[in-house]
């Protein structure tokens, strides 16, 4: 009978509880545009005047009837389970999506207010609607046909989400993404469009693969807990990666990794964010620059590859604790590795590999108990600079490079307490330039080997500090309680000038 006839029969008290009623003709049509099916709905009366809502729904999509929930008054299916174990649920019978928007033939890009569990939804329709208020559990959702629209207020739990193939962009906001399988690719973005996270949470084995040419932006979001893959946030294409006002953390677990892989040409920018137990990696074969600004790093590792010749890597106004910086590049001037603008490093190591043949510039900042700022390059051009820095608590700055044919080395406006600065092969690096000026060393050690020129030290005071050198010259130099180190290594020429009245700038 028709739905209208069933309503009339119930109103007249003519229903029998053991008699199944089959509705047709004016029942809902399910599916999406171009892929729809009429339905026959079986209902069981629960009294002489009422039907139960539990239903069996027959469609042209399957030879089997599907269990569901049907609202006779509104003529809507609010829940439906197909023969493949997929379930869509919508408790809002007045604005249903189970039968009007859910792609029962394959899938749909206009999911709204649905519940999907243990599903594989592929081949989604190309539509422009916003995906909102969905809960997708232990499922794979393929949105590669989605050409516009956004994902808002969704929950993806233990789900794989494929986004943005074929030039599409995806914007995710106010959503939660979690995976109970650490190997699951939760977000896979392959298109030329942008992928944007805003005010979202992604955790429990997260993995974001960004291989398209469009940018990846993460803002006001939380990315938490490492997966089994070698990297969690991957930039493998030409698109840039921007992380803003976000937290990337792996509490007590394996290290979270942000990896710009070989062949990646876009830059990686991290701004006003917290990286705790995280790895930020620009692989050797990637060519874009790395910029980290106004961030807090704790128990983190930052690795910069050598391929981005001519592009400066910048670490600006960063607080780092128990962190390691591995600088493998860049390899060509005028590019540099810049650590500037109020850095505060504690128990942190900065190592410049021999492959990083461009300059290293530390300008401004506090380095406390820093386990080593080490420059190891053996060639290239560009200066090594240490400006306006405060090194204390057994920090060390070491320049081990054997050659430096560029501008040279320059240390200026420094305050060292219980720390050490070691510069090897000064002759091969600086010609006749000044090595150290306007510096105050307290309880520290200054080791210079192979110096040359006329004014290597200028306006320097050593208090309770040791100076080791091999023939330096200088002006306005005060050695106050410098200890045996300064006396042992003074050359005859240096000692004689202390008695030469023509010199009045040594004390």
Structural class: mainly beta
Radius of gyration: 34 Å
Low-confidence residue ranges: 482-488
- DSSP strand count: 50
Beta content comes to 35-45%
**Amino-to-carboxy terminus distance:** 111 Å
Estimate the helix proportion, in percent. under 10%
Mean pLDDT, to the nearest integer, reads: 74
Count of DSSP helices?
4
Largest sheet report: 26 strands, parallel
What is the molecular shape?
rod-shaped
Tell me which oligomeric state these chains represent.
single chain
Describe what you observe in this structure.
With 507 residues, the chain is mostly beta strands. It is 5% helix and 44% strand. It is built from 4 helices and 50 strands. The strands form 4 sheets. It has a 26-stranded parallel β-sheet that branches. A 16-stranded parallel β-sheet has the order 10-13-16-19-22-25-28-31-34-37-39-41-43-45-47-49. It has a 6-stranded antiparallel β-sheet with strand order 1-4-5-6-7-8, covered by helices on one side. Strand 2 (30-32) and strand 3 (35-37) form a beta hairpin. The longest helix has 9 residues, at 3-11. It is rod-shaped.
């Amino acid at each position: 009978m028709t739905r209208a006839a069933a309503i009339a029969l119930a109103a007249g008290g003519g229903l029998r509880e053991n008699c199944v009623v089959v509705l047709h003709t004016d029942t809902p049509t399910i599916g999406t545009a171009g892929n729809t099916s009429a339905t026959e709905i079986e209902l069981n009366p629960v009294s002489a005047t009422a039907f139960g809502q539990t239903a069996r729904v027959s469609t042209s999509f399957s030879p089997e009837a599907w269990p569901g929930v049907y609202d006779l008054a509104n003529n809507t299916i609010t829940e439906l389970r197909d023969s493949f174990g997929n379930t869509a649920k919508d408790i809002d019978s007045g604005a249903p999506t189970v039968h009007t928007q859910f792609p029962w033939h394959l899938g749909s890009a206009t999911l709204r207010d649905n519940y999907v569990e243990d599903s594989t939804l592929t081949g989604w329709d190309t539509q422009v609607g916003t995906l909102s208020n969905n809960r997708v559990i232990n499922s794979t959702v393929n949105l590669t046909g989605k050409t516009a629209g956004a994902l808002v207020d969704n929950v993806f739990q233990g789900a794989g989400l494929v986004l943005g193939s074929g030039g599409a962009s995806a914007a995710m906001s106010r959503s939660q993404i979690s995976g109970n399988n650490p190997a699951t690719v939760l977000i896979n973005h392959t298109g030329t469009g942008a992928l944007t996270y805003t005010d979202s949470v992604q955790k429990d084995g997260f993995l974001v693969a960004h291989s398209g040419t469009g940018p990846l932006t993460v803002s006001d979001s939380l990315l938490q807990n490492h997966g089994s893959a070698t990297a969690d946030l991957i930039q493998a294409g030409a698109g840039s990666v921007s992380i803003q006002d976000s937290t990337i953390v792996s509490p007590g677990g394996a290290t979270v990794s942000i990896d710009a892989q070989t062949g990646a040409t876009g830059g990686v920018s991290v701004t006003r964010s917290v990286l705790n137990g995280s790895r930020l990696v620009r692989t050797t074969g990637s060519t874009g620059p790395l910029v980290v600004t106004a961030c807090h790093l704790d128990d983190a590792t930052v690795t910069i590859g050598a391929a981005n010749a001519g592009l400066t890597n910048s670490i600006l106004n960063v607080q780092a604790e128990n962190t390691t910086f591995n600088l493998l590049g860049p390899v060509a001037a005028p590019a540099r590795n810049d650590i500037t603008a109020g850095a505060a490093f504690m128990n942190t190591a900065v190592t410049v590999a021999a492959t990083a043949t461009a300059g290293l510039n530390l300008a401004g900042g506090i380095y406390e108990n820093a386990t080593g700022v080490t420059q190891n390059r053996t060639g290239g051009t560009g200066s090594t600079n240490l400006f306006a820095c405060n090194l204390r608590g057994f920090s060390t700055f070491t320049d081990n490079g054997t050659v430096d044919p560029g501008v040279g080395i320059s240390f200026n406006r420094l305050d060292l307490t219980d720390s050490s600065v070691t510069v090897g092969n000064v002759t091969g690096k600086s010609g006749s330039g000044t090595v150290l000026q306007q510096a105050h060393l307290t309880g520290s050690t200054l080791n210079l080997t192979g110096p040359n020129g006329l004014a290597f030290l200028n306006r320097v005071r050593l208090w309770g500090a040791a100076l080791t050198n091999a023939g330096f010259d200088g002006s306005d130099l005060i050695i106050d309680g410098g200890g045996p180190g300064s006396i042992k290594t003074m050359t005859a020429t240096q000692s004689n000038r202390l008695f030469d009245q023509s010199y009045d700038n040594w004390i």
